[in-house]
Amino acid sequence: MKILIDDNQNKLAPGKDIEKTLSNLVEKVLELENLEGDYEISISFVDNEQIRELNRDYRGIDEETDVLSFPLDDSINREGPTLLGDIIISLEKAKEQSDDYGHSLEREIAYLAVHSMLHLLGYDHMEEDERLAMRSREKEIMKELGIFKNVKGDQ
Questions:
Q1: Do 87 and 120 contact (CB within 8 A), yes or no?
Q2: Burial of 94 (0-12, 13-18, 19+ CB in 10 A)
C-alpha cells in the first residue's frame, strides 16, 4: 500500500504523528472493508481558499468545505493494484471544527480521512438511508481505531 501525503498549505502544522495516524487509518478501513491487495491513496492538506476553489471547480459549490474526495475507480479491483483516489483536507477548516467540537486537530483529520476513505470505496450520503449507513460505518471504524470524540489532545 502506498499513501502519498502532501502538505500544500503553510498556515497550520498537521501534527508530528499524522503520517502514522493516516497510514494506520487507511489500513484499518481497507481491512474492515475486507479489501486486500496493493492500493494507492493520495492525501493533500490545503487551506480554506484552496479547498473553496476545488469545491467551486469540481462541485459547483462556491464555499469552503472540510474535505473533498476524488475516487479514481468506481469499481474496486480486488485482485490487483488499485488507485483509490485523492483526499483533500482543509487544515484550516479541520482546526475550526476541532475547536468547535472540543477535540484535537489530529482526531478531526482522522475523522475526515475515514469519511473520505469511505467515499473512495463507494459510500455516499445523498439519501437519508445512505447517510445513516455511512455514519454508522464511520463510527465503527473510529471505534476500531480507538479514536473517540471529546478527547482534547495537545495539538
A1: yes
A2: buried
Single-letter residue type at 125:
H
**pLDDT, tens digit, for every residue of 100-152?**
999 999 999 999 999 999 999 989 888 899 889 999 999 999 999 888 765 44
What is the spatial distance between Cα 148 and Cα 23, in angstroms, rounded to a whole number? Answer: 18
The mean pLDDT value for 16-37 works out to 90
Nearest in space to 109 (alpha carbons), one of 130, 135, 89, 129: 89
Q: Cell 478527547 sits at which residue?
A: 151
116 within 8 A of 69, measured Cβ to Cβ: yes
**Which grid cell sits at 12?**
497550520
Name the strand (E) or helix (H) holding 91: helix 91-101
What are the structural domains, with CATH classification, of the chain? 2-145 (3.40.390.30)
